[in-house]
């Protein structure tokens, strides 16, 4: 009986078991429903994109769909972004680009779903949605309704899968190596017999022995090449697996023909060597990538999943996802901190090396901030949770690291595009080589062997590996040194940077000015000023607050902070003003700067000037050396500050900056950055405060120190976790080194193919040497990338 394809999944069935619906046939009600759903939604173009590919029919799921809406599930897997909910899912059943297209289209058209991005290589989908409009369970149902399934992305499961893949590759490699070594012993005997003579029955036995050994190498060790070729044919493109398999399988078939017919020589040893050499290169790539990823995974590896919560006199072991802000957690010596908080009882040393690279433990006591990722070295500490698990330092770092590889550098996209066309070109060249040699020599065997060498020696894999391996190693090394790239693409941008713009206070300087001189009226109550400066987050206010520590807080009314100028308030009907000279003049007081080389806070109370505070802020350790390095590598360094010109000039001279601009408001800083970009400068902005965020948004790459405000950290592209200015030097060193290695890798890959492919076409390379050369070219690229370490 004739077979007919299902109109949806394209699988073939006997006609009598199909559901007929007008002119369409369906294998099940699920396929029938999806077919009409897609056409009703205007997505019938999916079947054109599928071509002759087939997909699995929809499955029935009997699990509880409501579990996706539970509070515990949301705490663990769902994050908040810009007022919306975001989740990472693995979509099961994606086989080709048409599947990606269909899922993105169906989800994007659904009311409440803001953004959908699906990565075809790992089937990972990022979905942003409005939880007030649509539930996560409804999104899962929507994915299932079109024949796919989805489950939450879990990094620990990815680790399990990576280890399983490594073990699988190892066992396949063992079979390949064992069989190839034995084949080579037989091949030695055959080569000897070829020159000195050998009886035909012995030759046949040796040929058969080689056939027995080569078969598992081709079909077991080389199964990854069959799988890669299958998907390449299915999606109508040519890849490295196609080239390797074409060469090895052609040699295998010809060798079987020679063995059975007695005409020509067998090349089973070449088949085994080609597969084993190339597969060993793949195995080493798997190990290298896993090693680089392990560096990043080390941030979250072996972190406790439960913590001790103190409730009254009880200690309750609770999962980290269930901990709420305000809960009290107890830490003992050796415990790892999982959630951020503030110490309320005890004091002890904390190891921050996994976060900042600082090997020396820091002493934290009452009101000290505890960060997730650190380790309590000694003592018993109790602290109050200040942030939920999902918003704590370690969770943010892990999220940023997971996301950092999502966006590829432009040079990687170019390399991937070239390697895609390259494989097709090589296949055409191999066919032309076969035709030319066959008509030139008239020997089918010789033409086949030369064309196999062309297929095998060409290496699009080296081109494909040139960028991602170097990028992965670069990002992992940066993370190890306390530098967090939010996207891999910023490595390339930093490497091409022409101008670095630096904020002064809190970036170049420590941001903690100290009072070095003061004049305060004896009749003035310092508690009023202490209460006023306590309401401001400006470094000058913090410096004066520290100087006045010990004073009592009093209640102030009508508090108004004037950005970059000062602060004023009302105390029992009397006005108090504190700020710079311009602020005092604006409010009707006479003022003149007598020491403009330092920051001065002027204070007036009840219409009379009552105090002046002279403050000094020193540059950070390593600021001069780092700025000197930036200038030596050809970068223009500019400082922008809201401080007066004399203070700015003093700091600029201390750190070796020639170009600076003072007395700037946040909008002025942003305009400076915009003007530089309009002059085709590639601008990197380094800042730490809210007043820098506008300028940071206008730059190509924004960098902030770990101690910066949350606003600065959120808009930044690179975070210096260890709060060390020397880390800025590390950013440029790693970026430039990585980009240089990428260019070297691309040069090696292109030069290798330009030299070896013509040699193979000319018949100077046998398949054995071709396989070895091809593997070595990939390993050279991977090895060169590892030099970044």
Query: What fraction strand?
Result: 15-25%
Summing up helix and strand content along with how strands pair, one would put the structural category as alpha+beta
Could you name the ranges where pLDDT drops below 50 across 5 or more consecutive residues?
Answer: 404-408
Dominant shape: elongated
**Average pLDDT, all residues:** 79
Q: What radius of gyration results from the CA coordinates?
A: 34 Å
Q: Give the strand line-up of the largest sheet.
A: 19-31-30-29-20-27-28
Helix count equals 28
Work out the number of β strands: 31
- Report how far the terminal alpha carbons are from each other: 64 Å
Helix-residue proportion: 40-55%
Largest sheet: 7 strands, mixed
Would you summarize the structure shown here?
The protein has 789 residues and is α+β, with helices and mostly antiparallel strands.
Question: How would you explain this protein's 3D organization?
Answer:
With 789 residues, the chain is an alpha+beta fold. The two termini are 64 Å apart.
Q: Which characteristics define this entry?
A:
seven-stranded mixed β-sheet; 28 helices; alpha+beta; single chain
Layout of SSEs?
Elements: E1 3-5, E2 12-14, E3 19-21, E4 24-26, H1 29-40, H2 46-50, H3 71-77, E5 79-81, E6 84-92, H4 97-108, E7 113-119, E8 124-129, H5 136-145, E9 149-152, H6 155-196, H7 200-221, H8 223-234, H9 240-261, H10 268-297, E10 306-311, E11 314-319, E12 328-331, E13 341-345, E14 348-351, H11 353-356, E15 362-364, E16 369-370, E17 375-376, E18 381-385, H12 393-403, H13 410-441, H14 444-457, H15 460-465, H16 468-480, E19 483-485, H17 489-495, E20 499-503, H18 504-508, E21 514-520, H19 526-533, H20 539-547, E22 557-562, E23 566-571, E24 574-579, H21 581-586, E25 599-605, E26 608-616, H22 623-632, E27 636-640, H23 645-655, E28 659-661, H24 666-678, E29 683-687, H25 693-698, E30 701-705, H26 710-715, E31 718-720, H27 726-761, H28 767-786
Parallel strand pairs: 20-27, 20-29, 27-28, 29-30, 30-31
Antiparallel strand pairs: 1-2, 3-4, 5-6, 6-8, 6-9, 7-8, 10-11, 10-12, 12-18, 13-16, 13-18, 14-15, 14-17, 19-31, 21-26, 22-23, 23-24, 24-25, 25-26
């Amino acid at each position: 009986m004739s077979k007919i394809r299902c109109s949806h999944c394209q699988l073939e069935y006997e006609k009598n078991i199909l559901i007929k619906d007008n002119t369409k046939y369906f294998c099940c009600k699920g396929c029938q429903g999806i077919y009409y759903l897609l056409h009703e939604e205007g997505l019938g173009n999916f079947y054109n994109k599928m071509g002759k590919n087939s997909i699995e029919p929809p499955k029935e799921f009997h699990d509880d769909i409501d579990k996706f809406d539970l509070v515990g599930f949301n705490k663990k897997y769902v994050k908040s972004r810009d007022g919306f909910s975001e989740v990472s899912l693995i979509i099961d059943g994606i086989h080709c680009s048409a599947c990606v297209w269909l899922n993105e289209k169906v989800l994007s058209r659904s009311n409440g779903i803001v953004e959908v991005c699906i990565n075809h290589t790992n089937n990972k989908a990022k979905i942003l949605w409005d939880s007030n409009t649509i539930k996560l369970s409804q999104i899962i149902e929507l994915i299932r309704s079109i024949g796919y399934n989805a489950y939450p992305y879990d990094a620990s499961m990815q680790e399990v899968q990576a280890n399983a893949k490594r073990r699988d590759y190892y066992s396949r490699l063992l079979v390949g190596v064992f069989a190839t070594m034995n084949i080579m012993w037989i091949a030695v005997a055959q080569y000897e017999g070829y020159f000195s003579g050998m009886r035909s029955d012995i030759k046949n036995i040796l040929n058969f022995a080689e056939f027995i050994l080569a078969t598992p190498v081709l079909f077991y060790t080389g199964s990854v090449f069959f799988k890669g070729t299958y998907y390449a044919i299915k999606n109508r493109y040519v890849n490295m697996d196609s080239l390797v398999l074409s060469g090895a399988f052609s040699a295998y078939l010809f060798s079987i023909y020679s063995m059975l017919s007695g005409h020509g020589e067998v090349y089973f040893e070449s088949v085994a060597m080609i597969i084993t050499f190339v597969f060993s290169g793949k195995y080493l790539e798997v190990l290298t990538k896993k090693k680089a990823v392990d560096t990043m995974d080390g941030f979250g590896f072996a972190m406790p999943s439960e913590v001790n919560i103190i409730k009254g006199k009880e200690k309750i072991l609770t999962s980290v996802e269930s901990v709420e802000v305000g809960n009290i957690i107890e830490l003992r010596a050796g415990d790892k901190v999982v959630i951020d908080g503030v110490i309320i009882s005890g004091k002890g040393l904390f190891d921050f090396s996994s976060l900042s690279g600082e090997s020396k433990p820091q002493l934290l006591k009452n009101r000290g901030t505890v960060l997730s990722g650190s380790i309590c070295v000694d003592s018993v500490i109790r602290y109050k949770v200040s942030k939920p698990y999902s918003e704590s330092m370690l969770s943010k770092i892990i999220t940023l690291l997971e996301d950092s590889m999502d966006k590829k550098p432009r040079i990687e996209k170019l390399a991937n595009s070239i390697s895609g066309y390259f494989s097709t070109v090589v296949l055409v060249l191999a066919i032309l080589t076969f035709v030319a040699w066959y008509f030139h020599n008239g020997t089918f065997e010789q033409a086949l062997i030369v064309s196999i060498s062309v297929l095998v020696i060409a290496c699009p894999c080296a081109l494909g590996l040139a960028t991602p391996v170097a990028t992965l190693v670069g990002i992992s090394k940066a993370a190890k040194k306390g530098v967090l790239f939010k996207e891999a693409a910023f490595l390339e941008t930093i490497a091409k940077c022409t101008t670095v713009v630096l904020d002064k206070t809190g970036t170049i300087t420590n941001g903690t000015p100290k009072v070095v001189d003061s004049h305060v009226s004896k009749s003035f109550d310092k508690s009023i000023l202490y209460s006023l400066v306590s309401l401001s987050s400006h470094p000058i206010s913090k410096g004066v607050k520290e100087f006045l520590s010990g004073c009592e807080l009093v209640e102030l009314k009508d508090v108004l902070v004037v950005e970059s100028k000062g602060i004023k308030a009302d105390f029992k009907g009397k006005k108090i003003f504190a700020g710079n000279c311009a602020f005092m003049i604006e409010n009707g007081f006479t003022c003149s700067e007598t020491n403009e080389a330092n920051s001065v806070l002027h204070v007036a109370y009840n219409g009379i000037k009552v105090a002046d505070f002279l403050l000094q802020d020193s540059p950070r350790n390593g600021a001069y050396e780092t700025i000197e390095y930036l200038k030596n590598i050809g970068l223009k360094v500019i400082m922008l500050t809201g401080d007066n010109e004399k203070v700015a000039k003093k700091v600029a001279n201390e750190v070796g900056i020639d170009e600076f601009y003072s007395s700037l408001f946040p909008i002025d800083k942003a305009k400076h950055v915009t003007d530089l970009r309009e002059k085709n400068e590639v601008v990197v902005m380094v800042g730490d405060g809210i007043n820098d965020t506008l300028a940071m948004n206008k730059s190509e790459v924004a960098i902030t120190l770990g101690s910066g405000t949350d606003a600065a950290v959120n808009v930044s592209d690179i975070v210096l976790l260890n709060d060390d200015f020397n880390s800025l030097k590390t950013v440029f060193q790693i970026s430039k080194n990585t980009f240089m290695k990428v260019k070297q890798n691309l040069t090696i890959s292109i030069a290798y193919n330009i030299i070896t492919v013509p040699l193979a076409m000319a018949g100077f390379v046998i398949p054995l040497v071709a396989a070895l050369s091809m593997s070595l070219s990939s390993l050279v690229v991977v090895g060169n990338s590892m030099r970044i370490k």
